[in-house]
Design brief:
The chain is 5% helix and 33% strand. With 258 residues, the protein is mostly beta strands. It has a domain at 36-181.
Length: 258
């Protein structure tokens, strides 16, 4: 993407929420509310003269912990799901969402886009499933648009060039990109205006001038309470831990004894 300050190219990982430009030396917090929205550029030059339609896919990444009837389970998830009800299209992006470069959707893209029909809520229900109790941690739900070339009566995969078993007229694409806009907030302390410190994927930033901490949430910097344990002058590094206060309203206990 481009630096919001000077326009220089910036490369981001999906987990990063801070745009740090190596040209103008500025840092900006990127807001992708309600979810990140990307697209892949077509790669088949031999079809360059054909129209392109972008098809949406939901992509879910995260850690899944589940409590089964016999034993607990754990796995890393990176799955994609077709967001329109169209038979003939690939039901998943496969490994493409991991191997291809993803670009943020911004103003100025003139190609056709299909809008998602399967909602975000329905996809999350599908991922949760029934039966086993599941908990997802660190999950990221994003919308990825994959390109398809439209010929007279043939549809081509925009990445591999393979023929898709459906007619191009079955894709009622809109002639504009989705109403999705990136927003940026300068990475400055709301208290004193000092530069906030933190990694590009940090959720909490700190100000070394007024020693305040700020949580990035809902397109805002929210002041966050922080405490230090056994701080000494010769300390080289301090590791962060979330402190959780848990309360049980009802706790049923039973045994197999008579």
């Amino acid at each position: 993407m481009q630096c919001p300050q000077c326009g220089a190219p910036v490369v981001l990982e999906e987990t990063e929420c801070i745009v740090r430009c190596r040209f103008c030396r500025t840092s900006n917090i990127i807001h992708t509310h309600p979810y990140p929205c990307y697209y892949m550029e077509p790669r088949q030059k031999k079809y360059a003269g054909l129209q392109i339609a972008y098809v949406p896919y939901w992509r879910f990444k995260g850690l899944e912990f589940r409590l089964g009837t016999k034993q607990p389970g754990f796995r890393v998830i990176d799955h994609s799901y077709l967001a329109v009800d169209k038979s003939g299209l690939p039901v998943s992006l496969g490994l493409r969402s991991q191997t291809q470069k993803l670009k943020f959707i911004q103003k100025g893209i003139l190609e056709s886009f299909l809008l998602p029909v399967i909602s975000r809520k329905d996809i999350l229900k599908q991922i949760a499933g029934d039966g086993e109790k599941k908990v997802h941690i660190g999950e990221i739900l994003s919308l990825v648009f994959m390109p398809f070339y439209q010929d007279t009566d043939i549809l081509y995969d925009g990445l591999s060039g393979k023929v898709i078993a459906m007619h191009h007229s079955d894709l009622p694409a809109h002639k504009k990109s989705p109403a999705y806009h990136l927003e940026f907030t300068p990475s400055l302390c709301p208290n004193c205006g000092w530069d906030l410190k933190g990694e590009t994927d940090s959720l909490v930033l700190h100000c070394s001038n007024c020693m305040s901490f700020w949580l990035i949430h809902n397109k805002k910097l929210n002041k966050f309470k922080a405490m230090f344990y056994d701080k000494r002058q010769d300390t080289d590094m301090q590791m962060p831990f979330w402190r959780l206060e848990i309360e049980f309203k009802t706790l049923e206990c039973s045994t197999y004894t008579h």
